[in-house]
Every structure is written in C-alpha cells, then in structure tokens.
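Q: I have 568 residues here and want to know how they pack in 3D. Can you give me a structure?
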Amino acid sequence: MPNIKNTSFDKESQIVEPEIELKLVFDTINRNRKSIACFGLVGLVLSALFAFSTKRTWEGDFQIVVDEKTNSPLFSLDPELSQLLGMSGTGSGIGSKSKLKTEVGILQSASVLMEVFQFVKTNKTEVKKLRFSKWKKNQLDIDLEKGTSILNIAYRDQDKKIILPVLNRISSIYQDYSETNRLRSVELGINYFKEQIQLFKNKSIISLKEAQQYAIDQDLNIAPEISNQQLQVPNTINIEVIRVKAANRVRVLDRQLAQINYLKENSEELNEQILYIASTIPHLVDVTRNLKAADSRLARLRLDYNENDRIVKNAVKETKSLKKYLIQQITGSLIAQREQAKVQMKAAERPKGVIIKYQMLLSEAYRDKVTVEKLEDQYRLTLLEKARSKEPWRLITTPTLLPYPVAPHRKIILAIGLLSGALLGSINAFVDDRRKDVIFSISQIDSQINWPLLTDVPIDNKKSLEEKLYLLSKSAFSNVQGSIAIILVGDIDDFEIDFLKKYFTNFNSINKLLITRDLRETENSSSLLILTSLGRVKRKEIEVLEEKLLLQNKPILGLLALSKNKLV
C-alpha cells in the first residue's frame, strides 16, 4: 500500500488573515440578484415618495461690488502718522482681505438686514416665530467671490413670488449703506483729527520749550529748526561731536607714539612708517626730505666703498643723527597734539546722561511737531472726502430668479434611493450567506480543511470533467492499490454520483469502488477520497467530517468538489 500521509497544518501557529475575493463578492451578488433588485426597487419607491412630496425651493441672486474705500479715514492713516501715534495695529496694519471680511460680517448682521427679515415675516404667516439667525443660515447666502471684492448674494425660499422683492430690498439697503457708512466714517474722522491736532499742538510747544531750557542749563548748543523731511532727529549736538572726535584723536596719537618708541628701540635703519608719520606733520617736511637724501647718498657710497672707509662711516653717522633728530621731533609733536586733544575732550565732557536726555528731548519735540503737521494734512484730506460726492456700490448683476428650482434634487434623490436599496440588498445577501453557512467556492474549502484539496470537478462540462479525471488518475491515483472509499459530504444528487462513478471506473484500474456517507462502511477500504458539491455543503458538515476522520488511521487522497457554472 502506498505511503500516502494525511496533510495537516498547525492552525494555532499560523495567523490566517481573512481575504475577500472579488469573485466571491460577484458570485454572492449574482446568486442574490433578485433579492438585491427588490431592495433597490423599494429604495427607489421610497426616495420617489420623498422627492415628489417635498415642496420645491426656488432661488434668486445678484452681485454687488464692495468698495473698500468706504472705511473711516481713521483706519487708513498715513503709515508714518500711525507710527507716530503708536497705532501699529491700525491703518496699513489691517490687510485688505481682513477689511473685506469685516465688511461682509457687518452686511450679514441683523442691524443691516433686520428690515428685510421683518418684510419676510410680514408676508409669510407660517414663519411668524422664525428667528433671524435661523432665517439667515437656511435661506440667505452672502459671501465674497474668491480673490475679488465682488459680493455674491443668494436667497432661497419655497415661496417663488417673494424671492425678487427680498433681493431688491437687500440691494437697495446695501447701496444706501455704502453712502451712509462713508459719511458716518468721515464725520468720525473729522472729529478725531480736530481733537488730536489740538492735543499735539499743545504737546509740541511744551516739548520744544523743555528741550531749549535744558540746553541752556547744560551749556549745550540749542538745536536749529527741526527738518520736516525726515522722522529721525539730525545730530545737532556739536559738543558731543567734539568730545567724540577728541577722544578718537587721543587714541590715534597714543597708538602712533607707541609705534615710534618700538621702531626707535628695534630698528637701526630708516623705516618707512617713521617717514609716513613725519609726512603728516607740516614743520617736519624739510627734515624728512634731508633724511631721505642722506639715506640715498649712503646707499650710493656703499656701492663704491667699503663699510670701514671713513667717507662711509661719516655718511652713516650723519644719517643716524638725522633719524634721531626726526624721531625726537615726531615724538614731541605727537605728545603736544595728544595734550591738546585731551584738553578739548575734557572741555566737551558733560555729566553722565546729559547728552542722552537732551537727545531724547529733541527727539520728542521733533516727533510732536511732525505729528501735528501730518494730522493737519490728514484733516484736510478728510474734509475733501466729505465734500466729494460718491456713487453707491455698483451692481454687477440685477436681482434675478433662477428658472429652475434648486431643491429638492429629484434625480439625485432617486439615484441615492436606488443605490442605497441595492447596497442594503447586497449587505443582506452577504449576511444571509453567512447565516446559511454554505460553502460556494474552492478557496472557502481550502481555508477550512486539513487534507489535500485536489481540484473542483465541473459536473456539467463533459470535456473538462474527462480531462481533470484523467490528470488525477495519472497523478494522485496512479499509485493507489486496493479499494477506494469515496466519502460523500453535503447534498449530492444520485445521478451525479452514478455519473462520477462511471468516470472513475473508466480512468482507474480500481478493484473496488465504494461510495458512502457512513465512515463505518469504509473499514475494508485502503484509501479515502472526500467528495462534496459547491453551494450544497455547509462548513459545519466539513468540520464534523474532519473530526471523524481524525479517529481513523487511513490515508486520505484529498478532496474533490463538484461545481456547476450556474452555482458558482
């Protein structure tokens, strides 16, 4: 007898992840297509009842350009004036986008649209208890067109006749609002600038007097008339300039003296740095010229005479003498200049904090003066704005009623109802298949059994059936000796059993073939073959058979599954 072992898997040591095969999904839908169609039809009918019983909603709209320049002059201050007044959060700090959003928020408020809301309540008895916030949220859309200052206004209502009157009232209110808001803003700006001009005039006089009195008390130069062309105070404190220049001059002279002393002690030759320093001192020009001439004469003599010749020695002596004299003169001149610079620096010194305070006083006086001038300029511009006649906001499109209702969307509702019904039908089909616990595919069997899965046998396709049985006879059944018992599991017709038995007999030299459902009858059989039918066997039946087979010590050739195209 061949050594055919039962194939087993350790289920506990493996993690089997469930996979939903597309073919199984399509097969389930195909098997239950009538049920799914019924669910879809019910969904379609219910959605049709809803769509055709709901009252239609109509919509109208128009567009208007929001003029950003209707804002108060206070909020369009000159940037420098905003800085002087310490209003960094206003003026140019408010972006155009933020202004438009604020304007749209005002236009949506009850203070502007309450008149329209009252008109709607008066003409529609069924909305007497309607609140403004709910009305605006459900029936009115006001928003800016992206990247522009064009305002889109849309109003929807189930009463078709009231839409155009409502839109015309909104249009009229917005156009009136633009001019009213502009004039109110202008008046506020005029009053504001009047108050600020008087305030800063008084402040400018006081700050200028304080700066002048402080300059007199501290022996400082009184600043001339402050320039109007720049915000920063010019450097008019000459005494501080003198002190700084003198201090810098002392540092330079100290560095030159240190350099002269170093060269005098460490260099016997004429140095270019000494000559450069000497050239900056007017009364040493002749000495420098004589030293250069003596040095040139010494260099020529050294070309013709030896270093020990008397004429060379005399020339060296003369050069050293001139160099020593020059260094003495340079040192004396630098020391005198340093002392003079120290005297100037001392005379220009003031107590700590005096100069800083004076600069602060000058800066404040200048800032107050410039603020007054800019406030007066802004005040004049505001008066001109008041006198200017301005057109109301321009309508791009007039209030128009759309030719078709915007709700309910009957086609969409019907489509959603149909799809929802079909989806619920499909879910019901999957749930029903799971409840029945029937196996419909080879992959479902393969994930359940622990013995070899040979193949599925198409019982309604003679050619394919003969081909598969022939291949099995040459592979799985070729070495089988003795009798084979075919164990039936699931609902299999008798004619299918007879049909299959005939083919097994033709393709295999089997002495005896037993087909049974009772394992007790397989006692004398050498090998076992499991036969089932897709769509007519339950998982529980496979599990029960598997438990029984574990009690037998017989080789299992594998499992054959009957299939029909109409079943799969």
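Q: Anything worth noting?
A: The chain has 17 helices and eleven strands. Residues 261-349 form one domain.
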